[in-house]
Amino acid sequence: LRTLTGHTDTVNSIAFSPDGRILTSSGLYDGTIRLWNYADGSLLRTLTGHTNQITSIAVSPDGLLLASSGSYDGTIHIWQVADGILLRTLTGHKSRVNSVAFSPDGQMLASGSDDGTVRLWRVSNGSFLHILEGHEDRVNSVAFSPDGQVLASGSNDGTIRLWRVTDGSWLDTLEGD
Fold first, then answer.
1. What is the mean pLDDT of each run of 10 residues along the chain (177 residues)?
2. Burial class, 165, CB count within 10 angstroms (exposed 0-12 / middle 13-18 / buried 19+)
3. Is 169:163 a contact under the CB 8 Å cutoff?
4. Three-state DSSP state, 169
5. CA 53, 159, 58 angle in degrees (round to 5)?
């Protein structure tokens, strides 16, 4: 349909808004997030605030917020999609954050990090809810179940761990053959 250009290097993560009208993209090394009008490919705005290596972006289920993780400082930024204002910065991971995901109701954000942990955050005020520990290597990916009750995390240790969202307790570990 079209090619969107503007990042100066690797595009590392992309996400659509729930209504499909906005496509977001993050540059791994250029430290920018770009919001595009999907209908015509025009650039709506460019967000800056990470020093480099934006590893993951996610759009909230209502399309109002964007979460981004990047650089080696372990931070996560929460942005307003409509105007690109940085609302808050979440801190707590001890290393690079590789993945972020909103819960289906948009009330929580999960993050997985090189520090081997998963963290759950309250989106409304950025407060820390739970730290999920058990992986033996970095956490590369996090995803909520459709009902928002379970969080899955995938790690370089070759496992997928399942966690109960309400209290952060470990439910099960899935391992390959």
1. 90 95 92 94 93 89 95 88 96 94 98 96 96 96 98 97 97 88
2. buried
3. yes
4. coil
5. 35
